[in-house]
Amino acid sequence: MLEPQEVVDTYFLEARYMALELAAWFDRYDSAVQRSGVPAPDDKKLRVLRQALQQLASPEFGSERTEMLLELFAAT
After folding, report:
1. Alpha-carbon distance 70 to 76, whole Å?
2. What percent of the chain has pLDDT over 90?
3. DSSP class of residue 39?
4. 72: Cβ–Cβ under 8 A, 6 or more apart, which residues?
5. Terminal-to-terminal C-alpha distance of the chain
6. Is the confidence at residue 5, as pLDDT, over 90?
7. DSSP per residue, 2-31
8. Among 39, 53, 47, which residue's Cα sits nearest to residue 76?
9. pTM score, whole prediction
10. Rounded distance, CA 49 to CA 72, Å?
11. Fewer CB in 10 Å around end: N or C, the chain?
12. Eight-state DSSP code of residue 43
């Protein structure tokens, strides 16, 4: 079992990559909205993704984050 600092050191680059991918996804969406002038008609998926990101950053979920996300995405 890894120590907390070992988890950070081992998985930081992977987590950074995933965060950058999400940022790029939101940038592509925002660019598409600017080009078309309107947001997607069904923005439930977008709302769920934003909610997931907020909950991921919240310390209140502790080690339950994976389960929380699975439940959140299952409802989409």
Report:
1. 10
2. 79
3. -
4. 48, 51, 52, 55
5. 34
6. yes
7. --HHHHHHHHHHHHHHHHHHHHHHHHHHHH
8. 47
9. 0.81
10. 9
11. N
12. -
